């Protein structure tokens, strides 16, 4: 039996009553498998003696001591008992705040087993207000001393004693004879113990080194199966055996001749990668990632030209109509003069117009279709779709990607991301894709100067922005809310639009845009802002992606502490898209959390999106690093792909090595995958099987 098949309710364990069942459920523990995967967060080594004189917060005392005397000291709630004890190394005081009843349990002359973090106060006296003791009996074995004890996350009225007893009972009743999820060859190669032994050692180790060995094995096991999942998805999405496809540089060379600049080295390298993929006998699955404004879209257009010139069609899908419209406008301006037939399709295109467009697509009379998710609608067909380009691809699920590629035969996929993908994420959620990176910016671009401003000092920011507006530049003001909320005192876009347009900048033309603004009105506002008929744009994070206004030199984000690193970086990327110096002001409200302070300081000091992405991942953790549609894929019970990156890389290499020799292992590994991920719903086996 595999661990994941132990779906018996925790109520089956003696001593786990209704209250404990409710509290365990709050921790996500409802069955035996989940209970056995409720791993300790740390251990208390009560096996090895630590004298009172050597105690500290990091190394609590573990000793046998005698009670010397009692006294009472003053504290804010009255008198508190102070018990002086001593072992062979010296004396120390136990401060019993709110526990004066311990005087009866600790009479002078009594000998006790004692543990706790004793530290010296300003007078040099060893003291502790957090301690555990029991009567010393040399003839009987202690339950609380002489062992390495696990310390678990708790909820409600749960306590460590109840959890330890429940987990020990579950181990005794269910863990014997559990099947191993790792192949025997791997366990033998790395010297990993079996699953039952791992569970026993991680919960109740004889020594700390045993717990470390078990943890190492369980982490590797999870990451190995994660990489088997990635291998299956890659195999499903990139079958071998298609005929290699032609590629033509004819239209690309024409476009190069029209450009007023040369491609950067990273753009050239990425285009070379794409060309090699598109000419191979396996469908391309490549992620093109890069800084905001680094020129990914141009590389994607050139990839489309290589396919179109060879006689096939391309589709360019974006997550929002605003972004899709911008791509369509750019494609019309850059590609139609080369003879490329471009069409724009969203959910708003209906009736006769939609019918005419889909008919033309099916007849091959359109070379490049640009649009939103409407591109994979049931009424949309292509005559010969060769390349699917997906912008901001992390906003689309795997299923949505497949719906688009199903519009053709062995369609090549090029995914774009303006949010640099940390290496950890590239090896996990996007491990089935090859990765090209554009790290260099076009010549002449200056780093955006980033300044922090405390709420209350906005007038200084407004005065600076006014000078930029007077110089002919434009500015964004971004807020976390559309409208005022009774549940918070945050500034909102609607009220601030009124304030900025009538009080702060009455002499400049200002407009408001957010997700509730009608799409046609939104397009008109963005067009006016781009063409200079507007000076100030007040918005929510709807402008985070896809808005390219070279004349915008100021980005002001108010309540910046409410935005994540990735969002702040994207917003800052809306300015600095020309050779002019640009500025980003992050206006924050106090008090700031530690994470809030860290985010803002990172933004101030770092412009490298790849560094920011790594820091963002460290702060948010792996559970959220793939976005809402894919985060369930990464909910692991003990492994942390960020912390355990070196193990992840080794597991990936081994998974690839083994599956290359024995593809059947992918199917054999499914039982282990079901077992590992069953405790972390939603687990979609079809996703693993089909990609």
Strand-helix topology:
Blueprint: H1 18-26, H2 32-36, E1 42-45, E2 61-75, E3 78-87, E4 90-96, H3 102-105, E5 111-116, E6 119-120, E7 126-128, E8 132-135, E9 148-151, H4 160-174, H5 184-190, H6 195-203, H7 208-237, H8 250-258, H9 265-278, E10 285-290, H10 296-308, E11 313-317, H11 321-334, E12 342-345, H12 351-363, E13 368-371, E14 385-390, H13 398-405, E15 412-417, H14 423-426, E16 434-438, E17 449-454, H15 458-470, E18 474-478, H16 493-504, E19 510-513, H17 519-531, E20 536-539, E21 552-558, H18 565-572, E22 583-588, H19 594-605, H20 609-620, H21 645-661, H22 665-668, H23 670-677, H24 685-690
Parallel strand pairs: 4-7, 10-15, 10-16, 11-13, 11-14, 12-13, 14-15, 17-22, 18-20, 18-21, 19-20, 21-22
Antiparallel strand pairs: 1-9, 2-3, 2-5, 3-4, 5-8, 6-7
Helix pairs in contact: 4-6, 6-7, 7-21, 7-23, 8-10, 9-10, 19-20
Secondary-structure-based class equals: alpha/beta
Major sheet description? 7 strands, mixed
Q: Judging by the overall fold, what is the CATH architecture of the domain at 449-606?
A: 3-Layer(aba) Sandwich
What is the global morphology? globular
Radius of gyration: 31 Å
**Count of DSSP helices?**
24
Task: Please state the average pLDDT score.
Answer: 85
Structural commentary:
The longest helix is centred in the N-terminal third of the chain and has 30 residues, at 208-237. The protein contains 24 helices and 22 strands. It is globular, with a radius of gyration of 31 Å. The two termini are 27 Å apart. Among the domains are: 48-146, Beta Barrel (OB fold (Dihydrolipoamide Acetyltransferase, E2P)), CATH 2.40.50; 250-282 and 294-417, 3-Layer(aba) Sandwich (Rossmann fold), CATH 3.40.50.300; 449-606, Rossmann fold, CATH 3.40.50.300. Helices cover 37% and strands 18% of the residues. By secondary structure, it is α/β, with parallel strands linked by helices. The strands form 4 sheets. The protein has a 7-stranded mixed sheet with strand order 6-7-4-3-2-5-8, with no helix packed on it.
